[in-house]
Amino acid sequence: MTAFRKTLLAATALAMLASSAFAQDVSVLRIGLDGSENEADQMRNAQCVADQLKAATGVSEVQLFPSPDYNGVIQGLLGGTIDIAVMGASSYAAIYLKDPNAVDPILTTVGADGSTGYYSLMVARKDSGFKTVADLKGKKLGFADPDSTSGYLVPNVALPAAIGMPVKEFFSETGFGGGHENLVLGVLDHKFDAGTTFGSGVGDWAEGYSSGNLHTMVAKGILDTDDIVELWRSPLIPNGPLMVSNKLPEDMKGKVEAFFKDLPGKDLACFQGFTGGENTGFTEVDASFYQTIIDARKSVIGG
Q1: What is the pLDDT of residues 103-137, one digit of tens each?
Q2: pTM for this model (two decimals)
Q3: 117, 293 contact by CB (below 8 A)
Q4: Which end of the chain is more exposed for a tag (fewer CB within 10 A), N or C?
Q5: Distance from first CA to last CA of the chain, Å, rounded?
Q6: Cα gap 14→25, rounded to integer Å
């Protein structure tokens, strides 16, 4: 046997061994949770997904990995330590701009009104006396998270048209609340004069609209919308994607996608808890659905 043939056979054997080892490694699936609300609630709302995904895919375990911020999940998806996550479009854009092949955006939610979009909403305390965003000149604005679409990226793109100047020139100070829930609590606690969060913008204001952070906070009993006022809303933002790591084998990715597609019909309560509102289902998307957000993030943040 020639040296070349020996080398070729050895390389083939190693490749087969690596492939086999990787296939065996998919005994665990890891879901990242981005810290947009408190960890205990995120874990509780995702547990039904973990239990049912385990049965649907045949893996031995589905692990939930809560992160205190969005970037922890972004880095996990880039590094292959997280397999699945539902996040905002800006978080997907952050991943895409670092490595366009790291994940696939495969599904997004369909809202109560049939739309696949939502809004960035600026809120303030009702007793502040603020009526419009113009009243906030020289005040302190809070953002949710630097990787949040509605809580940072879109306001920085869209607000200048409403206030007539760059955000940093209009407000005396800006800061971050540490996730959407904490941001709104910070507004209520006078840490910020106003803050940017998100919601469907449709449905009953008393319920915090039909989905989004305000809706979730009202449902948990930690927000009364009589205590806040909406000062501004953005243009429609595409709903964030369910992302799946491309480090997973294609057959496993197919099982994961099939599970999530079927989840609303099989367990609507689990689906709505996991996605944070009165959503009706998932619909297929791909990278092109998020191109405007990718372009905006590249322009505003740079990656």
Answers
A1: 999 999 999 999 999 999 999 999 999 999 999 99
A2: 0.86
A3: no
A4: N
A5: 51
A6: 16
